[in-house]
Amino acid sequence: MKLSHIAGLLAGIGIMAGAQVAVASSGVVNVHGKVVDTTCAPSTGFDEVDVDLDDVFASALQASGTTASPKAFTIKLSQCDATAKVYANFETTTNVNAAGRLKNIDTADPATNVDVVLTNMDDSQIDIQNQSSPVSVLVDASGNATLQYKAAYYSTGSATKGAVEAQATYLLAYE
Fold first, then answer.
1. Is 86 in contact with 39 (CB distance < 8 Å)?
2. Of 9, 93, 116, 170, which has the most beta carbons under 10 Å away?
3. How many CB atoms lie within 10 A of CB 57?
C-alpha cells in the first residue's frame, strides 16, 4: 500500500510539473549592432561648445511657446569613418524637462518661465526627451563632419528677468 501511495504521489508531481511547462511562454531576444573602424571625435576646440545667446527683453517672452534670440552653433568632428553618417544624440539628463527642452539651471539670479530649446538648422525642435528629429550629416572623404544646430530662449509662461544657463550632453551616433 505504501508503495502505491508513493507511486501515485510521484505521478501527481509529474503531472503538475508538466502543467507548469505547458503554461510557460517563450520569446526571442534580437541583438543588433555594428562594428566600425573608428568613431568620430570632436575636433580640437569643439569638445566643449559655448553658445552665448543675445540678451532679450522679458517682454519678448510673455506668451508660452515663444522663442527668441536663436543662435547657431557648430560641433566639428574629425577622425570619422568616411562612409558614415553621424549626428549628435543629445542625452536626457536632469537638465532636460519633460518637454525635451533644457531647463534654466542658473542658481544665482535665474529668469523664470524660460527654457532653452535646441533645434536643427531648419528650426525643427530637437525633443531631447524622446530623441526626435535627429539630422545626420555625411562625413567627407577626409573623415571630417560638421554638425550644425541652434539654441534659443523658449518661454513657458510670462518670463521674468534674470540669467539663463543651460547645459546639454551629447553622444555621437551613426547611421
1. no
2. 116
3. 10
* Contact between 56 and 143 (Cβ < 8 Å): no
CB atoms within 10 A of CB 56: 19
Q: How far apart are CA 84 and CA 82, in angstroms?
A: 6
User: Residue 161 gets which letter from DSSP?
Assistant: S
Any idea of the CA torsion for 70, 75, 81, 83, to the nearest 10 degrees?
A: 20
Largest CA distance in the chain: 96
How far is residue 10's CA from residue 4's CA, in Å, rounded to a whole number?
A: 10
The grid coordinates listed for 124 are: 525643427
Pick the closest to residue 160 from 113, 124, 105 (CA basis): 113
Stated pTM of the model: 0.76
Report which of 58, 81, 61 is spatially closest to residue 161, judged by C-alpha positions.
Answer: 58
